[in-house]
């Protein structure tokens, strides 16, 4: 049901419900390094930490010429290489070396790479053994914990979606991947909330819960470091609304149909939230919120 903005303007500043958006995202053109089709699908690079040991990049059978070069030039792959050589990186102390990367799969989202699958041969110099190196790269993402207070009860906003990788319908926080490498985390968070719930938030109302983490963590959470490079920024929004808004949100159908998003909004009392879903984003957000509250790190909740 459409909700007129004027009907809630008195209930909550800078908070509005809108019809599910139907934008066509404009992705910048991706420029990749090209060569003749007869060129073997191999490439070599040199990392600053191992000048004398070039890294060989090889394509698996079935990976096309264009996908191979798109993978090498992608922000996903370049960021992974940078991570290896950071202060806490795998190659930082010189005890390990990267010998080869096998590009196994590339999934394009329009003109940009959405998912990248590869296998890295990283060798422990002392033993000569490989360490586990299968990588599913999808890049940084955001999630938002929306808490709405109404008539003395605090509610959390979840989305219900079919998640094919686990074969289940999952209740989770509004979330999404960054569209590019510009690092606009808060802007992406606000956009994803509007697309998935119909709620329009303002940038200045967002609180980055992951910013309270120690700087050594990169101030993001890593849900599955054994197989995926995803780093997640978790934001908090707090507001007050009339009970009518809670009722209208419950069961609201949203999502970008053209992107295959079939989403239903769920409103859950915050006190029951930790028992409601196994979504790791929800549980991480609760932990961050409760600890930040305990230590008095959150800004005052405007009345």
UniProtKB/TrEMBL annotation:
GO function terms (MF aspect)? ADP-glucose pyrophosphohydrolase activity; ADP-ribose pyrophosphohydrolase activity
Q: What's the cofactor? A: Mg(2+)
Q: Does the keyword Hydrolase apply?
A: yes
Using the record for this protein, list the coiled-coil segments as residue ranges, or answer none.
none
Return the Pfam families for the record.
NUDIX
Q: Where is the Nudix hydrolase domain?
A: 137-290
Output the superkingdom of the source species: Eukaryota
One of the GO BP terms on file? nucleoside phosphate metabolic process
Residue ranges spanning the membrane: these are none
SUPFAM superfamilies per UniProt: Nudix
Q: Which UniProt keywords apply?
A: Hydrolase
Q: Which PANTHER family match?
A: NUDIX HYDROLASE DOMAIN-CONTAINING PROTEIN, UDP/ADP-SUGAR PYROPHOSPHATASE
The name of this protein is Nudix hydrolase domain-containing protein
Which organism is the protein's source? Answer: Lupinus angustifolius
């Amino acid at each position: 049901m459409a909700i007129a903005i004027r009907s809630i303007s008195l209930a909550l500043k800078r908070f509005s419900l809108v019809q599910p958006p139907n934008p066509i995202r404009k992705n910048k053109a991706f420029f990749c390094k090209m060569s003749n089709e007869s060129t073997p699908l191999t490439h070599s690079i040199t990392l600053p930490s191992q000048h004398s040991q070039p890294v060989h990049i090889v394509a698996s059978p079935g990976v096309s010429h264009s996908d191979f070069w798109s993978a090498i030039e992608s922000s996903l792959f370049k960021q992974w290489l940078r991570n290896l050589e950071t202060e806490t990186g795998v190659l930082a102390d010189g005890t390990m070396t990267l010998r080869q990367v096998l590009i196994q799969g590339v999934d394009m989202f329009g003109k940009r790479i959405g998912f990248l699958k590869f296998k890295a041969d990283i060798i422990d110099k002392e033993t000569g053994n490989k360490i586990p190196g299968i990588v599913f790269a999808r890049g940084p993402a955001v999630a938002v914990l929306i808490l709405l207070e109404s008539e003395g009860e605090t509610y959390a906003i979840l989305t219900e979606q079919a998640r094919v990788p686990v074969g289940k319908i999952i209740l989770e926080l509004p979330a999404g991947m960054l569209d590019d490498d510009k690092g606009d985390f808060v802007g992406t968070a606000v956009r994803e909330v509007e697309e998935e719930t119909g709620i329009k938030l303002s940038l200045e109302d967002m609180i980055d819960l992951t910013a309270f983490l120690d700087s050594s963590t990169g101030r993001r959470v890593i849900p599955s470091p054994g197989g995926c490079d995803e780093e997640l920024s978790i934001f908090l929004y707090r507001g007050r609304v009339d009970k009518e808004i809670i009722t209208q949100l419950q069961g609201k159908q949203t999502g970008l149909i053209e992107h295959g998003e079939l989403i239903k909004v769920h409103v859950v009392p915050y006190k029951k939230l930790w028992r409601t879903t196994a979504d790791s984003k929800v549980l991480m957000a609760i932990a961050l919120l409760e600890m930040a509250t305990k230590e008095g790190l959150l800004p005052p909740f405007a009345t």
